[in-house]
Design a protein that fits this description.
Shape: globular
Number of strands: 23
Oligomer: single chain
Strand content: 15-25%
Largest sheet: 7 strands, mixed
Distance between the termini: 61 Å
Number of helices: 19
Length: 564
């Protein structure tokens, strides 16, 4: 039996242990973890892969999708509750009645168009063949034209909120995706009664209550100081967009760690958890990880590295940091400014290369050595000296989130020769993502927001070569979260606060958070070698990304025209 009760120092029986469930909704799957409230111990976890994964070529009925689309099916999210949560609970040995709360986190900005009761439009039989009726995943980048107009008009009108987003609005966010919906399928736009972050939609399904979480509202919904962009501004974008906020978006805001509601009978049946336990206000996968990594003081940046990377950090200073995804008062921790930046492609880039650039001979050699493709390429790359491959790459295969905020940019590799090997390209791509992170850190530093330590969370922490490269490139000590399920742990910690087990998330972080500080230290020699390569990266970054050469945008237009 798993620690059903604990003893105090006098040997007297104390109150039974209590537990919380954290559910992390990622790009391709959802993960549930069972966490002990007293110390954050993770007793068991389970994962469920989405049946429909990411729809980027066609809908389930075969309807084709244009380039840069990325959709999902919301019933896949419910399946995580039906499958992963009961499985994790069974593995843990914890009795359902010991669970006091459930918390969730989600990729953002992932948007669900729904009816007033929360029914996703894609579940209506007459709309199953309409792309705009589906969930728009965070990496849906087909609203770049709308994002550009939102940014340009805000600059022209000197809208004060634009400074909180580093001067640019992303195509990934709520308003850009909604404006694309209006302009490309006005009928579906008219049918949309609620434009809902998936982070809030799943809480709605668990509790029966729709509450907008403060995190996504601030970072992705342009809610600053309690105010959204004005109807006058929205009308200037498109007259039919003027009432978007009041008719489809605006809703009561729940603060992070607040109680959203209680688990409904239906959700209890899905999960095997007791009806009526606490359901926490929703959160974003990256932001919820910061307290799990014990990053509750200024200057500690957490990079959550998976298919993409999100960089979050709290500070006691406000500054306009160019190209940031947003800065929100209390967006991560109460009483501090929460900053967000990110890279749209990281693990996705490494995965793309393995799918397309891993020859059969390498696969045979890896199999003989008992390695998978990533392990094999990493081992070969680790044998190289810095710069030996003669390459430099830009990490823009999925566009640039920070600091250029332009998803029409694309990847590039310079220095290829007939002697270039797969491990050369693989290492150059690893390094490119580290250079992208350094670019973000320098934007913070140059704006007067110091970054003193980098803490890494996510699946890529297992690649020791990648971690050392990041430390050397950034010249920062790298801490590592001591959890394989950082976002789910963070969601569970917030659930503990919502259940009343801790007074606030800082207290929960001190008791339940886990991180190993300064696991990797920068080596001065390697750092100096990387300084030379970073200078070349920065030349390419500015040349292709800041308007000197628009070839990437021209190629994107040619591709779009050819795809019609």
């Amino acid at each position: 039996m798993v620690n059903a009760e604990i003893q105090d120092e006098r040997g007297e029986e104390s109150r039974p242990d209590t537990y919380v469930i954290g559910v992390d909704y990622g790009t391709l799957s959802g993960r549930a973890v069972v966490v002990r409230v007293s110390d954050g111990a993770e007793l068991a976890a389970a994962e469920h892969a989405y049946t429909h994964a990411v729809l980027d070529r066609e809908l389930p009925d075969g309807t084709s999708l244009p380039p840069d689309w990325a959709l999902q099916v919301p019933s896949d999210y419910i399946d995580v509750l039906r499958i992963a949560v009961p499985e994790a609970l069974a593995r843990s040995g914890v009795r359902p009645e010991q669970v006091v709360g459930i918390g969730t986190d989600f990729t953002a900005c992932t948007m669900v168009p729904t009816l007033a009761d929360g029914t996703p439009l894609c579940e209506l039989p007459e709309l199953t063949g309409r792309p705009h009726a589906y969930v728009k995943l965070w990496r849906h980048h087909a609203a770049q034209a709308q994002a550009d107009r939102i940014t340009a008009l805000a600059a022209e009108r000197k809208e004060p909120w634009i400074k909180r987003y580093g001067g640019k609005i992303s195509s990934e966010w709520e308003f850009a995706k909604a404006l694309q919906l209006l302009e490309e399928d006005p009928e579906i736009y008219a049918r949309t009664e609620r434009w809902v972050e998936a982070a809030d939609w799943i809480v709605w399904q668990l509790s029966g209550t729709y509450v907008r979480n403060a995190c996504t509202a601030g970072y992705k919904g342009q809610l600053q100081d309690g105010v959204y962009p004005s109807p006058e501004y929205l009308a200037a974008l498109n007259p039919d967009f003027a009432d978007f906020v009041t008719t489809k978006l605006e809703h009561p805001i729940g603060q992070l760690g607040d109680l959203a509601g209680r688990l409904t009978a239906e959700a209890a049946a899905w999960t095997g958890l007791p009806e009526g336990i606490a359901v926490c206000v929703g959160n974003v996968d990256a932001h919820v990880t910061a307290p799990a990594a014990t990053a509750v003081e200024p200057g500690r940046m957490v990079a959550i590295m998976g298919t993409s990377t999100c960089h979050v950090m709290s500070s006691d200073q406000w500054a306009e940091v160019p190209g940031m995804c947003g800065v929100v008062d209390g967006g991560i921790l109460p009483g501090l400014w929460g900053y967000e930046a990110g890279q749209s492609g990281v693990g996705d880039i490494f995965g793309w290369f393995v799918r397309t650039g891993f020859p059969a001979s390498y696969a045979e050699e890896a199999a003989a050595l008992g390695r998978d493709a990533h392990q094999h390429l990493t081992a070969l790359a680790a044998e190289q000296k810095i710069g030996e491959h003669g390459l430099i790459a830009l990490d823009w295969q999925s566009g640039n989130r920070s600091v250029l905020v332009d998803h029409d940019l694309s990847g590039i590799i310079v220095g290829l020769t007939l002697s270039t090997r797969p491990e050369d390209v693989y290492r150059a791509l690893l390094e490119a993502t580290a250079f992208g992170t350094r670019t973000i850190i320098e934007a913070f530093e140059n704006s007067g927001v110091p970054v003193r330590e980098l803490i890494i969370a996510g699946g890529l922490t297992k690649n020791a070569l990648l971690m050392q490269i990041y430390s050397d490139v950034t010249r920062l000590p790298l801490g590592v979260i001591d959890s394989t399920q950082g976002p789910a742990l963070g969601a569970a910690m917030h659930a503990a606060v919502a259940a009343g087990s801790y007074p606030d998330i800082r207290a929960a972080a001190h008791a339940m958070g886990k991180a190993r500080p300064a696991v990797y230290q920068p080596d001065p020699e390697r750092a100096a070698a990387y300084d030379r390569l970073f200078a070349e990266y920065r030349e390419l970054h500015d040349y292709f990304g800041r308007g000197a050469n628009e070839v990437m945008h021209r190629l994107r237009r040619i591709r779009a025209e050819a795809s019609v």
